[in-house]
Amino acid sequence: MKPVDPKSFERNRADAGTALGADKAPMIRTQMNGRDWLILLALAFIWGGSFFFIGVAVREVQPLTFVWTRVTVAAAALWFYLWASGQSPRVPRAAIAPFALLSVLNNIVPFALYAWAQQTIPSGLASILNATTPIWGVLVAHMLTRDEPLTGRKLSGVILGFAGVAVMIGPAFLHKLDGAGLAMLGCLVATLCYAFAGVWARRFRAMGVTPTQVATGQLTMSAIVMLPVALVVEHPWAAATPSLGAVGAILAIALLSTAIGYILYFRLIDTAGATNALLVTLLVPPMAIVLGAAFLSEVLAPRDFAGMALIALGLAAIDGRLLRLLASRRPRPAA
In the structure, what pLDDT confidence band is assigned to residue 172 with cuts at 50, 70 and 90? Predict the structure, then answer.
């Protein structure tokens, strides 16, 4: 459910380093080819499915235990990938402390919040709220960096995105903060953490740490931190044994959505660039909604779809390509 990440986060993570063993950086295409589109659609299915897998797992597994299992299995898979692909797992000692903070911002807090929230709200709704990550990313990057200012186009996208969130939460939120409202707020806090993680991840490029090493390092640190937390808070040994369906959901989100999702996403960034990779943010919610409706009998309210439309318009405004396309099709005045 990497997943996930705002436009600035994806660009900064792409800048974190190049693949080991390459003599020069690969050429990035502004126009995606068929292979790029296949990777993009695969990511949409994988990350849309992550919300479905969470919805299945948290019905039987406590949130913190679920998060620890997820990051541990994913970290082990990425360690194996580094070994099998001949990449070095060695990173500078100075990267250890930054990995710790990145694990909190990019894995521990958001993963736990989504696991907790999806005990109350549908997986499709959580996926829509997750699409606000690039919107937060615009604001965080403007405040904490010098090279990503808030332009008028980006500001309009931010306003549209938060208008969509307001429509989804509804006016009743102002009068009563119920379980669903708290769960939606938890999802928004998770996306804000992703945005801060994007800015923090910029430092790894100067350390010579590759994107795959970043992913492996943060997941490893997350597993180390979450083990005592889950043991102390939830006492997982006293819980009932989860069903095969719940175990399968945890393995799927760890291996597919987290480990393989990271690998595919970094490959797409290397070949098609972060701007094209951002399109996955628009494709994840429909996939999650379809899976939730088909297998979890989830039903979203009309205002949820209205909010999704506003968030999608906001993301399109931030991305800018749709606006440029419309502008290029306007008839030019005769000379």
Answer: low
Whole-angstrom distance, CA of residue 16 vs CA of residue 73: 24
Q: Whose CA is closest to 129, among 54, 67, 225? A: 54
| Pair 130, 289: CB distance under 8 Å | no
Give the residue-averaged pLDDT of 131-138. Answer: 88
- Terminal C-alpha separation, the chain: 52
What's the gap between Cα 115 and its chain centre? 14
Q: In whole angstroms, give the CA distance from residue 132 to residue 310.
A: 11
Which residue in 71, 130, 134 sits closest to 284, CA to CA? 130
Smallest CA-to-CA distance from 118 within 194, 44, 187, 191 is with: 187
Please tell me the predicted confidence (pLDDT) of residue 227.
Answer: 96
How far is CA 266 from its chain centroid?
13
Q: Which two tokens stand for residue 104?
A: 């909190």
**What number is the average pLDDT over the span 209-217?**
90
Copy the structure tokens of residue 31.
Answer: 């126009």
Concatenate the DSSP letters of all residues of 24-43 into one string: SPPPPPSS--HHHHHHHHHH
> Given this model, what pLDDT does residue 267 score?
76
The tokens of 300 are what? Answer: 């979203």
Distance CA 78, CA 136 (A): 28
Q: Is the dihedral of CA 62, 67, 68, 70 positive or negative?
A: positive
Distances (CA, A) of 248 to 11, 236, 259: 33, 18, 15
Please compute the mean of the pLDDT values over residues 303-316 and round it to a whole number: 90
C-beta atoms surrounding 32 within 10 Å = 18
DSSP conformation letters of 226-276: HHHHHHHHH-GGGSPPPPHHHHHHHHHIIIIIIIIHHHHHHHHHHHHHHHH
Side chain identity at 57, as an amino acid letter? A
The per-residue pLDDT for range 245-254, each reduced to its tens digit, is 999 999 999 9
The DSSP symbol for 332 reads P
Long-range pairs for 149-154: beta carbons < 8 A, 24 or more residues apart? 153/317, 153/318, 153/320, 153/323, 154/317, 154/318
| Tokens matching residue 284 | 């994840």
DSSP state of 106: I
pTM above 0.85, yes or no: no
Structure tokens at 168: 């989804």
